Amino acid sequence: MSKRDYYDVLGIAKGADADAIKKAYRQKAKELHPDRNADNPKAEAQFKEANEAYEVLKDANKKAAYDRYGHAAFENGMGSSAGGPRGGGQGDFASAFSDVFDDLFGDFMGGRGGAGGRRSGAQRGSDLRYNLRINLEDAFAGLQKTITVTTAVSCGSCTGTGAEGGSEPQVCPTCNGMGKVRAQQGFFTVERTCPTCSGMGQIIKDKCKVCHGAGRVEKEKSLSVNIPAGVETGTRIRLSGEGEAGVRGGPAGDLYIFIEVNSHPLFEREGLNLYCRVPVSIATAALGGEIEVPTIDGGRSRVKVPEGSQSGRQMRLRGKGMPALRGGPSGDMMIELTVETPVKLTARQREILREFDKLSEENNPQGSSFFASVKSFWDSMKS
């Protein structure tokens, strides 16, 4: 049985370009994969046929030979120097599928770089993290902060190339600049980092004496950071290009500043709102009055305490909380009253309180209600 035309196998016109060939093969590979066609006995043979066609047409030299001589280009040893197809066997599938896999995932995994799949040796520098603790007042108002970071910067002696005296890195002879080497193991093609260049794709024969070929040196640098008003613990600020310098002229990474806001002796933060517990005397809580409370901006506000206030009662000061990080109305400040019991009483104070207690049996609604419930509970237990 004569072989089908490779262009017909992939469903494309003769003379199709590399992108069209690759797109057609990917579609066929998904459509005909045996795992998706368990009920079609012909799928496996068609799958291998598509692999064989792609193995030839993806390669410019093989494709040129096929366009001129057809299948005869790979018969009787013809075209063997170009590594012609071997009847659609396992080697063809591994090579063809590996090529498509590289195309789909190579860039994401860092496996490709530069034209023709070669790596230039340049790699992006690592991102850095800096933890910055600030006070709640600074989080409210915002501030300009200078920080010192130890990082890798481009070597000034070799301008980041890693090579001495203006010489240039050379393409690695082992991997031809790919940074990876492949080995055939049965059905699979195994890809490993090149042992000669450690995945860089380049080697340096005459290394810079300052950075010893790394292209980078460690250095402390000071940076001015703008902390906007409204930040909270966990807020992340990104300084683009302030991370580690790239390798062999690659772009620098970023610096991420993570904010942690210290606890405050007066205020407790919950989102945009602030809470402040204010102790008041029994007399003020009972008779009512006015108290002065601090605000986070350093000011003062006077608050009226209603007559008969109990511990836990809250009053709201609108707009006296934290500002919104990305604009919008500020939060509120909640005043929570704590009725304070006096200590170290004098004899006269004790006498007055005992007299007051006798006269106030009817002035404690919560106590009366509680003990009425207790009495009802005990009565029910007896019955």
Automatic annotation (TrEMBL):
Per UniProt, the CR-type Zn-finger stretches lie at 142-220
> Does the keyword section mention Zinc-finger?
yes
Return one GO MF term: unfolded protein binding
Give start and end of each CR-type domain: 142-220
- The residues the record assigns to binding Zn(2+) 2 are 172, 175, 194, 197
Cofactors that this protein relies on: Zn(2+)
What subcellular compartments does it reside in? Answer: Cytoplasm
Stretches assigned to coiled coil: none
Location of the region described as Disordered in the Swiss-Prot/TrEMBL record: 302-332
GO BP annotations listed:
DNA replication; protein refolding; response to heat
Q: Which SMART domains match?
A: DnaJ
Q: Which InterPro entries does the protein's record reference?
A: DnaJ (IPR012724), DnaJ_C (IPR002939), DnaJ_domain (IPR001623), DnaJ_domain_CS (IPR018253), HSP40/DnaJ_pept-bd (IPR008971), HSP_DnaJ_Cys-rich_dom (IPR001305), HSP_DnaJ_Cys-rich_dom_sf (IPR036410), J_dom_sf (IPR036869)
What are the entry keywords?
Chaperone, Cytoplasm, DNA replication, Metal-binding, Repeat, Stress response, Zinc, Zinc-finger
Which residues does the record give as Zn(2+) 1 binding sites? 155, 158, 208, 211
This entry carries the following GO cellular component terms, namely: cytoplasm
- What is the UniProt remark on how the cofactor binds and its stoichiometry? Binds 2 Zn(2+) ions per monomer.
> Is Phosphoprotein included in the keywords of this UniProt record?
no
Q: Which residues form the J domain?
A: 5-70
Q: Which Pfam families match?
A: DnaJ (PF00226), DnaJ_C (PF01556), DnaJ_CXXCXGXG (PF00684)
Q: Where are the CXXCXGXG motif repeats?
A: 155-162, 172-179, 194-201, 208-215
Q: Which family does it belong to?
A: Belongs to the DnaJ family.
The free-text function statement in the UniProt record for this protein reads: Participates actively in the response to hyperosmotic and heat shock by preventing the aggregation of stress-denatured proteins and by disaggregating proteins, also in an autonomous, DnaK-independent fashion. Unfolded proteins bind initially to DnaJ; upon interaction with the DnaJ-bound protein, DnaK hydrolyzes its bound ATP, resulting in the formation of a stable complex. GrpE releases ADP from DnaK; ATP binding to DnaK triggers the release of the substrate protein, thus completing the reaction cycle.
Self-association state and partner proteins as the record states: Homodimer.
| Comment block on domains | The J domain is necessary and sufficient to stimulate DnaK ATPase activity. Zinc center 1 plays an important role in the autonomous, DnaK-independent chaperone activity of DnaJ. Zinc center 2 is essential for interaction with DnaK and for DnaJ activity.
Name of the protein this chain belongs to: Chaperone protein DnaJ
The gene name reads: dnaJ
